[in-house]
C-alpha cells in the first residue's frame, strides 16, 4: 500500500512540475516576442550638422510709398474745357494737365490790367511833373498807391485763373483720370494721381527692443509677392524719434532705388534688416527640432558598429537661436558632424533602433520660394 502511494505522489509531482516548467517557458517566450514587437526599427531620414555663415536679421512687413506722390485736384470749381494728358502718361514738372473754362475770369483780368496800365501812366507823368513843381508830392503818393492797388487786384485775378489750371507739381507717372470734357468739377475733387517712381520709401513698424540694433545706412533686402524670385535692396534712411505708446513699435523708413519701375506705391513687402556681423553657427532644418513645453529636443543617430545598417538614436535637448527660412541656428546640444533625424521622429524615443533612408530627404532653404505647381 505504501509503495503504491509513493508511486502516485511521484507521478503527480512529475506532472505538476512539467506543467509549471511549460508555463515558465511559455511566459519567457511571450515576453521575448513582445519585446521584439514593442521596439521594431523605424525608418528615418537624416542630415549632418555643419557650420554655416549666419547673419542675424530683423524681419518685418513694410509698405511701399512714393518719395513724391499726390492725388491732384483743383482749388476752384468749374467745367472742364481741356484735358492735356492720358491715363498712365509720364509727365514733367510744371506740365499742364487740365483746364477749366475761365473766359469770364480772363475778361475781368484784362479789365484790371487796363486799369493798372492807366494808373502807371498817370503815376509816371505826375512823377515827371513833380520835378518842376507842377504837382504836389501828395498827388504822386496817391498815384503810386492807386497803381499798387490796381496791380494787386490784377495779380489776385491772375491767381484765380491759375487755380483753374492743373499742372504737375513734380515729374512722375499719372494714374487713371477720373474727369471728362464738359464735366463740372467741385473744388477738391481728385482728378488723377501722380506718383514719382524713381525712388520709393519702405515704411515698417519694428518692436522697441530692436532700436539698439538699428541705425541709418543699414542694408535691407525686400521681397514682394509680385516678383517672388527677385530681391530688392535699399538702406535705412530714417528712424522715428518716438515710439508708439499703444503698440510699443517704432516707425522705420528705408529708401530704395526703383529706376526700373517694377515696384509700385502701396505694395506689401517682406523686409529683412541685417544686424551685427556674420558668424559661423551650427544649423539644422527646422524639421529636425521637436518643440515641447519642457524644451526642444533632437534625435542624434549613433555611429554604426561594424557597418551595421540598423542603429539607435539618442535623444538630446537643444537650444535654438534665430530662424532663417527653413533653417534654424543651434547654440547648444548639437556638434558639427552629428547625424540628426529630420523626418520620422514621431515614433522615436531614446534608444529606438532606426534604419536610415535618405532617398527622400526634404529640402531646406534659407530663402524658400513658393511656386505654383
Could you characterize what this model shows?
It is a single chain. By secondary structure, the chain is of the alpha+beta class. The chain contains three helices and 21 strands. The strands form three sheets. Strands 1, 2, 15, 16, 17, 18, 19, 20 and 21 form a nine-stranded mixed beta sheet that branches. The protein has a six-stranded antiparallel barrel with strand order 3-10-13-12-11-14. Strands 7-6-4-9 form a four-stranded antiparallel beta sheet, with no helix packed on it. A hairpin with a 2-residue loop joins strand 18 and strand 19. 19% of the residues are buried. The model has no long low-confidence stretch (mean pLDDT 86).
Amino acid at each position: 500500500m505504501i509503495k503504491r502511494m509513493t508511486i502516485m505522489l511521484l507521478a503527480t509531482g512529475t506532472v505538476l512540475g512539467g506543467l509549471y516548467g511549460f508555463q515558465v517557458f511559455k511566459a519567457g517566450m511571450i515576453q521575448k516576442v513582445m519585446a521584439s514587437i514593442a521596439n521594431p526599427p523605424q525608418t528615418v531620414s537624416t542630415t549632418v550638422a555643419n557650420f554655416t555663415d549666419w547673419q542675424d536679421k530683423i524681419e518685418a512687413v513694410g509698405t511701399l510709398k512714393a518719395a513724391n506722390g499726390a492725388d491732384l485736384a483743383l482749388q476752384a470749381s468749374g467745367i472742364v474745357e481741356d484735358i492735356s494728358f492720358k491715363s498712365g502718361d509720364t509727365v514733367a514738372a510744371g506740365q499742364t494737365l487740365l483746364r477749366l473754362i475761365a473766359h469770364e475770369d480772363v475778361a475781368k483780368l484784362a479789365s484790371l490790367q487796363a486799369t493798372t496800365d492807366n494808373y502807371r501812366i498817370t503815376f509816371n507823368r505826375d512823377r515827371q511833373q513833380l520835378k518842376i513843381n507842377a504837382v504836389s508830392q501828395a498827388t504822386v503818393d496817391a498815384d503810386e498807391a492807386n497803381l499798387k492797388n490796381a496791380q494787386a487786384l490784377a495779380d489776385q485775378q491772375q491767381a484765380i485763373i491759375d487755380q483753374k489750371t492743373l499742372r504737375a507739381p513734380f515729374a512722375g507717372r499719372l494714374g487713371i483720370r477720373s474727369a471728362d470734357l464738359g464735366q463740372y468739377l467741385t473744388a477738391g475733387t481728385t482728378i488723377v494721381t501722380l506718383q514719382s517712381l524713381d525712388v520709393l520709401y519702405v515704411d515698417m513698424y519694428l518692436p522697441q527692443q530692436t532700436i539698439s540694433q538699428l541705425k541709418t545706412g543699414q542694408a535691407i533686402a525686400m521681397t514682394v509677392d509680385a516678383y517672388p524670385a527677385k530681391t530688392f535692396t535699399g538702406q535705412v534712411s530714417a528712424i522715428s524719434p518716438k515710439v508708439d505708446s499703444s503698440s510699443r513699435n517704432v516707425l522705420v523708413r528705408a529708401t530704395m532705388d526703383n529706376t526700373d519701375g517694377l515696384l509700385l506705391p502701396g505694395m506689401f513687402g517682406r523686409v529683412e534688416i541685417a544686424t551685427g556681423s556674420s558668424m559661423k553657427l551650427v544649423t539644422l532644418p527646422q524639421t529636425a527640432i521637436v518643440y515641447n513645453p519642457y524644451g526642444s529636443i533632437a534625435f542624434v543617430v549613433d555611429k554604426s558598429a561594424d557597418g551595421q545598417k540598423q542603429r539607435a538614436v539618442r535623444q538630446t535637448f537643444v537650444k535654438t537661436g534665430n530662424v532663417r527660412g527653413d533653417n534654424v541656428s543651434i547654440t547648444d546640444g548639437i556638434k558639427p558632424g552629428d547625424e540628426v533625424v529630420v523626418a520620422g521622429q514621431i515614433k522615436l524615443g531614446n534608444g529606438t533602433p532606426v534604419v536610415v533612408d535618405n532617398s527622400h530627404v526634404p529640402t531646406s532653404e534659407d530663402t524658400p520660394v513658393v511656386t505654383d505647381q
